[in-house]
Amino acid sequence: MKLIRFFIDCAKVSLSGNTAYWAWVSVLLFFISMGGFTYLEQMRVGLVITGMSDQVSWGFYVSNFTFLVGVAAAAVMLVIPAYIFHNPDAKRVVLLGEGLAVAASLMCMLFVSVDLGRPDRIWHLSPWPGMFNWPSSLLTWDVIVLSGYLGLNLAIPGYILYNRYQGTEYNKKLVFGAAVLSMFWAISIHTVTAFLFASNSARPFWASALVAPRFLATAFCAGPAFIILAFSVMHKVQAFQIGHKVIDLLSVIVAVSMQINLIMLAAELFVEFYAEGQHSASARYLFLGLDGKSALVPWIWSAQALNVGALILLMIEKTRKNYYFLALACVMAVIGIWIEKGMGFVIPGFIPTPLGEVFEYMPTWMEVKVALGVYGIGALVFTLMMKPLRAIQLGLLANPNLDLVAAKQLYEQREREALEQRIRGYETKIDP
Amino acid sequence: MKFTNNNLPDLGRRKAIRLVGMGAAVGMGALASGSSSLATPNMGNVSLADQVGSFFQDHYKRMSPEEIQEAIERLERKYKSKYQVEVKVGDPKPLPDVLFGYALNISKCQGYRECVKGCTAENNQSKDPNLEYIRVLEMDRGQMNLETADPYYPSTEEVPKPGKFYLPIQCHHCENPPCVKACPVKATWKEPDGIVVIDYNWCIGCRMCANACPYWARKFNWTEPNLPVDTVNTQTGYLSNRPREKGVMEKCTFCAQRSREGRMPACQEACPTGARVFGNLLDPDSEIRYVLENKNVFRLKEELNTEPKFWYYSD
């Protein structure tokens, strides 16, 4: 009963806001409606409205799915410092990160769903009443890890917030255990997604042991960069106070991950091009063009330029600590990796085909519209979740008559006390 | 500043403006989609009972003989209303002690592509957009590089062209099929007689199998197949050449509707040069066994360990 009240109260907060808030919601509704109606057309006519073909049978949808799995996995970069190392700055924002993971995993599932030729049969993709080719098919693994990750990221913050709403303390051991689980789970969603590609020995461009580690590196680069940007926006519109220490922590993670990614890229390029065999044809198509076809060449080089540019900005202390340059670097990293591991990874796997045909792919506007609709749904879900989250954190939901300024002061005070208590704890440990 | 604005007097007006604004956003989105999907969907003359029946239809292997019979009758009613002809859907079972194999003599193949025509006349593929199971590659002599091959040599061209040889490729019906491993819903599997089949009513259209196939054998219905009435083959099999629908995968089935009744696949019958040898690998007196035992044979991409049951040889 109390749980139902909790959800009703949360919904009430989600549906209250000023004009700017409703304008933002309307913009998202525009994209969702545009995508939704385009998707209806796709259901009616078939996937022929996309740019996909027998030659290139996955395109923009799966590319965005691949990118977003990385964004979802990146929440772990806040979960580890917050729940495992008890970093107070990370703890303040970890729920936002988990909210982002929820929105991202939801978008992942939607992107896989809109890519299906027979969405009416999606129920076949279940152990019951469908038929699940587990453990053999990697797509069944992806269904399991993605829904599990979505569940974990709903359950942990939900449990913490529900306790705070009730004014009770949550079970620290339980949350710690769940956090450790979600840590490994985050790695698994991206590893499984990499294996979805790498398991195809028919596609030498994907069938590489480096795919999974590179996916992780790019995830921990683009994900935290995306989180920095999201935090900056929320800080700017005064939805949340974000401590600069968290931003510093995340920006170092972005920088290190980008370095690892670029080292792996260099290793891949060496192997592909030093003794260039038939298996290097996809890499040649991607980076240099093949048989006079070179649609992806400008994309992949701009992606690499953006990645290197972001890395330079992040490695110089002065620009990394400057929030304008940091935001610029993050935008560059997000776009660079969106290209590199989206279209820049999925499409060349199909070119040339196993029978040697070079047939190019270009997404259609219809496809882009459906994708925008999916992003709209993700953004709307994230927005609707953030409102009650903030209200509960500030104690506003439990006590609606509280003044916002007073609530913020109370919240700060609680935080300070918790910190002092922890410091006292350390002191007694050191000096008994 | 109060947290809720429930006590504001002009709440009603504000709410109305908000709703109108959001409604406008949704409407503009619908316009921007450029979609005409609000038009009545074309359901054909399929009865509601049949629509419900086919929606909840189970996997082929989990259906009882009676359920299979019902499914077949539903399909026959649907084809009747769609193509205005009686389409007979059979369900031939694999024969005992039979394992099908195919061998193709590349010294005899002249690139006429009669096999392609025989195949599409038999198997009810979409015409224009053309869906073909067999792809004949025009190869340069002196090498075996698929990337320099031309699959689109014009049909007006006189073949064989000097300096070229021809390599027809279709589903190799691998003993170790990567497509079967990749399918998330077990909609494709290897039958006891070695034929890799698809349950077109169970396939969800994810294309995992097509990505896994090293021979590019699988073809997808990107839209409703275009099968003009005069091209319909009315003698069909449930797991092979019955007309398909949009959003599902299809491919060569060694003409299961023929081969399981002791006949040759359509491509074998259509070949004017006798380059194609099809038969039972378990029968020591079969022609295919003679070829495998006495000719120098090879298979494509053997390094992938898929064990194709499709061999090439030359005299």
Automatic annotation (TrEMBL), chain A:
The keyword Acetylation does not apply. Keywords: Cell membrane, Membrane, Transmembrane, Transmembrane helix. It comes from the Bacteria. GO terms for cellular component: plasma membrane. Pfam families: NrfD. The chain crosses the membrane at residues 21-40, 60-86, 93-114, 134-162, 174-199, 211-234, 246-267, 296-316, 323-339, 368-386. Its main location: membrane. It is found in: Cell membrane. InterPro entries: DsrP-like, NrfD-like. It is a multi-pass membrane protein. Belongs to the NrfD family. This is Polysulfide reductase. It comes from Candidatus Lambdaproteobacteria bacterium RIFOXYD2_FULL_50_16.
TrEMBL record, chain B:
Residues 194-223 form the 4Fe-4S ferredoxin-type domain. The keyword Acetylation does not apply. It holds the Pfam family Fer4_11. Keywords: 4Fe-4S, Iron, Iron-sulfur, Metal-binding. PROSITE patterns: 4FE4S_FER_1, 4FE4S_FER_2, TAT. It comes from the Bacteria. One of its GO terms (molecular function) is 4 iron, 4 sulfur cluster binding. The keyword Iron-sulfur applies. This is 4Fe-4S ferredoxin. The lineage of its organism: Bacteria, Pseudomonadati, Pseudomonadota, Candidatus Lambdaproteobacteria.
